[in-house]
Specification:
With 264 residues, this protein is an alpha/beta fold. It contains 9 helices and 8 strands. It has one domain.
Length: 264
Amino acid sequence: MIDDLEFDSVSDLVSKVVGRLSDSPLWFRGQPSNEYKLTPKLMRGPSRPMDEVYQREARLVARFRERSLPFWPAGYPQQPWEHLFSMQHHGVPTRLLDWSENLLVATYFAATTPPSQSEGKPTVWTLDPLGWNSRVPQLSDTGIGVLTVADDEAQRWEPATSTGDRLAKRAKYPVALYGVHNSPRIVAQRGTFTIAGDTWLGMDELPCDDTNWAGYLTKYVFSGSSADLMNQLRFLGFTESMIFPDLSSLAAELTILEGWPSDG
């Protein structure tokens, strides 16, 4: 069980996170509710056998590859990992969870959902990716800190493109992973990722008897409203077009700055 640590302002959050710094880097994830688990979209809802999860993933990857070809730049790699990160970016369910190397970017995502659409309080998670990966059996003796898609060990988590014998070699636990930066948004958001292994449990639900997974996660819950938190972030310059660098986001940001309602 991971306890909720409360913060009452952006400066309070920064102070508390800085107070817990060590030699290991931290990654951050913002969620609009402290009741949400650290579970990828593909694995939310009623528990299912992992074979079914991989079957669904294989079908989604295949369908995405079939239908996305006209939208790729000429010469762009057409490998499963590239497709998986693009799927995640565009909202297709995957086994990935988005994290950021920037604390305030994560805090922005914690504040984005209006209270009417979310139960609970805005929440920021921190993850020690090196500590976490040091407990993953497939990486413990490799000298790898954070996994990359070029590492041979990544095959244990790679996107399912079939449901054959390779599924028998799946790693059980989630792993911290550097992703393919295939969009300006991932670059702007200093995006990093974790990817689920062969267990339905979310990262915050893993048992701690043999491996203290919870020791690498910290949960901060905002005491106020998401609107209060967003106002503080905008004052500090963390606006929509900074997080989402495109014209649609700039238009939404200018609409708010000029005093027009943002709901159309």
